[in-house]
């Protein structure tokens, strides 16, 4: 479904990746871990076409089995959560407009994007699902960080995408909202749906995520089955910090050693 081959990519003047290779198949659920600055968001931004790789003969990015995919096709296929997206919303967008914008792959609701009555009804149900029903017409600027994040979660799901791309989705969420996020991811993680999650919270790797990719300094240092990749030694090395890892009910927990 997603193939990055021999990718070289920059963020500003910083070369983040050189000959970077990753392949993710249909229906895979994958967690991407790595220290700050490792390249996790850059990887996701290559997929969402927020940044483009250096053009080279032997490199390509294939998305949804297409060499060429328009940004609009892409937005129909994926549901996205990222900090950048949250920052792109204008202050006067209302909560329901944030959700509705997901139908159009747009940031906010503009005059030329007219939702149908069915879409409005679905958006209202989604507001309830993410616990934001009482904020239907509240402006984005009047919401807390976690409330904004709940709206983005709703926005990412409303058009029933075949892949969710969640870049640190739990930023700013309280315990109840984090639990809601885990439930939402588990609900979504059906065999036909794909999920790519970056997180610094190991406990967010839901049981349905079976593959973990570790990135450090722009390189994949491990990629494989969760139970093989995630060990105290490997994570201590990844974060240059001694940590202990434990597993309980198919969830991992980490603490400082
Ligand atoms: N807009 C930018 N201009 C220049 N360099 C950037 C820019 N954005 C990111 N970088 C650099 O690119 C590298 C990779 O950043 P990236 O955001 O992909 O890391 P990350 O693994 O997502 O980190 P974090 O866990 O902190 O979110 C870092 O060295 C960072 O400093």
From TrEMBL:
Residues 2-242 form the ABC transporter domain. It comes from the Bacteria. InterPro entries: AAA+_ATPase (IPR003593), ABC_transporter-like_ATP-bd (IPR003439), ECF_ABC_transporter_ATP-bd (IPR050095), P-loop_NTPase (IPR027417). GO terms for cellular component: ATP-binding cassette (ABC) transporter complex. One of its GO terms (molecular function) is ATPase-coupled transmembrane transporter activity. It holds the Pfam family ABC_tran. Keywords: ATP-binding, Nucleotide-binding, Transport. SUPFAM superfamilies: P-loop containing nucleoside triphosphate hydrolases. This is ABC-type molybdenum transport system, ATPase component/photorepair protein PhrA. The lineage of its organism: Bacteria, Pseudomonadati, Pseudomonadota, Gammaproteobacteria, Oceanospirillales.
């Amino acid at each position: 479904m997603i193939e990055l081959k021999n990718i070289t990519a920059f963020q500003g003047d910083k070369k983040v990746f050189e000959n970077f290779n990753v392949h993710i198949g249909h229906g895979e659920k994958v967690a991407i871990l790595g220290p700050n600055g490792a390249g996790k968001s850059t990887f996701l931004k290559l997929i969402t076409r927020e940044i483009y790789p250096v053009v080279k003969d032997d490199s390509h990015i294939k998305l949804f089995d297409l060499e060429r995919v328009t940004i609009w096709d892409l937005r129909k296929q994926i549901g996205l959560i990222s900090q950048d997206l949250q920052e792109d919303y204008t202050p006067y967008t209302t909560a329901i407009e944030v959700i509705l914008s997901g139908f159009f792959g747009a940031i906010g609701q503009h005059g030329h994007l007219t939702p149908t009555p069915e879409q409005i009804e679905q958006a209202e149900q989604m507001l309830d699902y993410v616990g934001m029903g009482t904020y239907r017409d509240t402006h984005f600027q009047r919401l807390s960080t976690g409330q904004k994040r709940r709206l983005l979660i709703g926005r990412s799901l409303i058009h029933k995408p075949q892949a969710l791309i969640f870049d640190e989705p739990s930023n700013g969420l309280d315990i109840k909202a984090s639990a809601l996020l885990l439930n939402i991811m588990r609900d979504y993680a059906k065999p036909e749906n794909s999920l790519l999650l970056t997180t610094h919270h190991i406990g967010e790797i839901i049981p349905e995520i079976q593959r973990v990719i570790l990135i450090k300094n722009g390189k994949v240092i491990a990629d494989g089955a969760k139970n093989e990749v995630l060990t105290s030694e490997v994570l201590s090395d990844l974060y240059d910090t001694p940590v202990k890892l434990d597993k309980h009910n198919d969830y991992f927990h980490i603490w400082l050693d």
